[in-house]
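Task 17 of the worksheet. Students: predict the tertiary structure of the chain below and write it out as structure tokens. Keep your answer in the requested format; marks are given for formatting as well as content.
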Amino acid sequence: MATPESSPLGKQSAYIAEYDPSLLFPIERQAKREEIGIAGELPFEGVDIWNAYEVSWLNEKGKPVVAMAEFFIPAHSPCLIESKSFKLYLNSFNQTRLSSVGEAAGRMRQDLSAAAGTDVRVTLVPLSQLGASANIAQLPGECLDDLDVTIDTYQADPGLLKSDPDEIVHERLHSHLLKSNCLVTGQPDWGSVVIDYQGPRLDHEALLKYLISFRQHNEFHEQCVERIFQDVQQHCKASRLTVYARYVRRGGLDINPYRSNDPGFEANNERLVRQ
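Model answer:
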């Protein structure tokens, strides 16, 4: 079984400029899910939304094409795809001649679906077809970041969470103070996160302390979101819960996982100011 330690992360890598799908490095999700008590049927739906800003190939005459890409990897896929391998794979298109945008998208869809173990949706748009500017979104609901809290816990600690079982609410809360570290390299991963729930009212200061406690926690983006979902759900038994994180770009890729048990939730892919 492939492990994060055997991935390209933290190792010197040759940047291959000719198409090579073998560069993709899938990692099984289940081992980390078992750590947070997930076995069998998933308690959520979700997607890992990747945005790629360094995508290019050559047309049949050798002229470069540059594009932006969106990749939608379902949470039910057996594997996530390690991010450095994803970048190396995309770079392998740089000197590859392709007949059309459709051919490039088709190859990516086929390769990523094979790596993830389920169908992956790919949207690929040349820059010449994009608008002059992209709208910058703001996260919904109340921001927790101005709360005056004292905290000295920087490893993910669900014991910090508090709720009031006698007060049932529907709230949308968000914070830009999420930071975790790469599971292998320890490099910082900066992000913003939305907690949208219906259930016993979460103590806002306690929730902010909990989110800040990820600051020295080592896990991949997708795993952090699933851990937050599980911790909040186990604590307050929300009838509806969505956790949606938007991470800052690294190496031309940003990763934006969401996990939800709300059948009415629809994720957008609007960029935040740090993206």
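Marker's comment: Residues 4-129 form a domain with the GTP Cyclohydrolase I, domain 2 fold (CATH 3.30.1130.10). The helical segments are 30-35, 83-91, 101-116, 204-212, 221-236.
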